[in-house]
Amino acid sequence: MKLIGLILALSCAFPVLAGGKPATANRSSAAVLTETEEATLLWMREEEKLARDVYLTLYKVWNKPIFSNIAESEQAHMDALLKKIELFGLIDPALPDVGDFANPELQALYDELVARGKLSYVDALTVGATIEDMDIRDIGNAIAETTNLPLKTTYESLLEGSKSHLRAFVDLLDQVGVEYSPQYIDQAVFDAILDI
């Protein structure tokens, strides 16, 4: 009888022994986000959609692979952020149609960037560099404001992707004799990303 009691006690203390899942695997056990972390996560999801949608639109205009290739990467960024939104039980703010945004600030920015990118191929590349420049600043801020490991890990992965995208756009601008100057990140950070 004592043995049965001991087994039951251990089963309650260690659910894995009883065939249950460890508490850390339960969605409900995910750390609670602060209001700032929630707002940032939702903003980042739409900001990545902004990048993807601008690149999809500019690909239709210029038919250059850089826009379709980076749009695919931005979709992966969006997917990673959606997983975090679902993990923390939040409502996804991203609208399904390309170029549609719930946030009026992002809607205005999308419209402005697409209009600029349609002026010329060089303008389109500059728009791409500008988007990545802005993303790097915003992702860096998001990393700095959270101690949540799942968020920080996701943001750090996005940051590396945005650095790669920035290098690609700046390289193509260099090839046509146009120098891009950072608008959102410090020149020193920009130079470090480009390994200047």
TrEMBL record:
Domain DUF2202: start-end pairs: 39-194
Gene3D superfamilies: 1.20.1260.10
Metal-binding is among the record's keywords: no
Keywords: Signal
Keyword Iron: no
Pfam entry (one): DUF2202
CDD domains: Ferritin_like_AB2 (cd01048)
UniProt cross-references to InterPro entries, sorted A to Z: DUF2202, Ferritin-like, Ferritin-like_SF
Signal peptide segment: 1-18
Listed name of the protein: DUF2202 domain-containing protein
Source organism: Methylomonas rivi
